[in-house]
């Protein structure tokens, strides 16, 4: 008796679930490294381009794209590299970081902040008296007092001595009223004569004095260097020296008195005459 079913309908139903492998239910999302690599290739960038743009070393870029985060040096650094690479290839870093945290035990706990503490008040250190400074000050005071006493004593002694000498009359004046008068002091030597007498023999020395009026004069040495160029008023004088010779120009020779090498020049210069003279180290003579 037939039940109305075909043979095919009578075949036992196979358990389809037994033929499905267990790993078929894996996450369809690409890995972090694969997602970064695909985004880089889609953007037309090479690993060198990414390294140049992000300063992340080539070896680390290759390792991350292979899902090897060991060269990063820890989860904190790995997260930083993922964020940097994702921005370079224009991916959302938040999704990749959430995926990384899920695969690596969650986001690392933040490092606890160092406890705050109240700054300890620094108490001023008690120091003993500075004996060195005190000794130096005492020594300076003693030296100053001794010096002051010495100087003051010397001044007082000199004053007392001068007063004593002034108050005591001389023996000669009290004993003999007819004592010899003091010899008058010798007249002071004329500085002109002493300067002329001291003229060195190895140089030419010329002394010009405006005795009878004023005169313009010019004096040069043997190199032509100007020694004087100006007006001598009556009574003024100038002295010139050189190793070889002195060249003179006298604007009014009649008003000038000349001494050359310690000797007076007796030339009869006429008033108002202009004289050009040269004197050397020898006897006074016009060169």
Question: In words, what does this structure look like?
Answer:
- The chain is of the alpha+beta class and 287 residues long.
- It has helices at residues 7-10, 32-42, 47-54, 58-65, 75-88, 93-103, 131-167, 171-175, 191-197; strands at residues 204-210, 215-220, 226-232, 237-242, 245-250, 256-260, 263-264, 275-280.
- A four-stranded antiparallel sheet has the order 4-1-6-7, with no helix packed on it. The protein has a four-stranded antiparallel sheet with strand order 3-2-5-8, with no helix packed on it.
- Helix 2 (32-42) packs parallel to helix 5.
- The model is unreliable at 5-25, 113-122, 159-167 and 169-177 (pLDDT under 50).
Task: Characterize this entry briefly.
The chain is an alpha+beta fold.
Write the layout of secondary structure elements.
Elements: H1 7-10, H2 32-42, H3 47-54, H4 58-65, H5 75-88, H6 93-103, H7 131-167, H8 171-175, H9 191-197, E1 204-210, E2 215-220, E3 226-232, E4 237-242, E5 245-250, E6 256-260, E7 263-264, E8 275-280
Antiparallel strand pairs: 1-4, 1-6, 2-3, 2-5, 5-8, 6-7
Structural class: alpha+beta
Query: What does the radius of gyration come to?
Result: 60 Å
Report on the biggest sheet: 4 strands, antiparallel
**What is the CA–CA distance across the termini?**
176 Å
The share of residues in helices is 25-40%
Shape: elongated
Regions with little confidence, pLDDT below 50 for 5+ residues: 5-25, 113-122, 159-167, 169-177
Number of strands: 8
Total number of helices: 9
Taking strands numbered 1, 2, ... along the chain, how are they ordered across the largest sheet?
Answer: 4-1-6-7
Mean pLDDT score, rounded? 76
Strand fraction: 15-25%
Oligomer: single chain
Q: What is the H/E order?
A: HHHHHHHHHEEEEEEEE
């Amino acid at each position: 008796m037939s039940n109305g079913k075909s043979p095919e309908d009578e075949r036992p139903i196979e358990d389809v679930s037994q033929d499905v492998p267990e790993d078929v239910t894996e996450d369809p999302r690409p890995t972090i490294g694969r997602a970064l690599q695909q985004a880089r290739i889609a953007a037309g960038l090479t690993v060198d381009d990414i390294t140049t743009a992000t300063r992340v070393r080539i070896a680390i870029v290759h390792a991350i794209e292979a899902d090897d985060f060991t060269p990063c040096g820890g989860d904190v650094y790995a997260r930083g590299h993922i964020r940097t690479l994702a921005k370079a290839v224009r991916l959302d870093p938040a999704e990749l970081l959430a995926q990384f945290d899920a695969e690596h035990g969650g986001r690392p706990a933040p490092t606890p902040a160092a406890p705050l503490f109240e700054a300890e008040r620094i108490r001023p250190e008690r120091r003993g008296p500075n004996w060195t400074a005190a000794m130096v000050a005492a020594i300076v005071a003693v030296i100053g007092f001794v010096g002051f006493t010495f100087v003051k004593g010397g001044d007082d002694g000199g004053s007392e001595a001068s007063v004593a000498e002034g108050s005591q009359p001389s023996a000669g004046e009290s004993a003999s009223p007819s004592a010899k008068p003091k010899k008058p002091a010798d007249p002071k030597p004329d500085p002109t004569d002493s300067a002329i007498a001291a003229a060195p023999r190895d140089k030419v020395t010329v002394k010009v004095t405006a005795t009878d009026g004023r005169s313009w004069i010019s004096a040069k040495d043997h190199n032509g260097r100007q020694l004087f160029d100006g007006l001598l008023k009556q009574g003024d004088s100038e002295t010139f020296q050189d190793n070889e010779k002195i060249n003179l120009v006298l604007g009014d020779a009649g008003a000038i008195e000349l001494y050359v090498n310690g000797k007076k020049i007796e030339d009869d210069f006429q008033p108002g005459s202009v004289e050009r003279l040269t004197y050397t180290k020898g006897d006074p003579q016009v060169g």
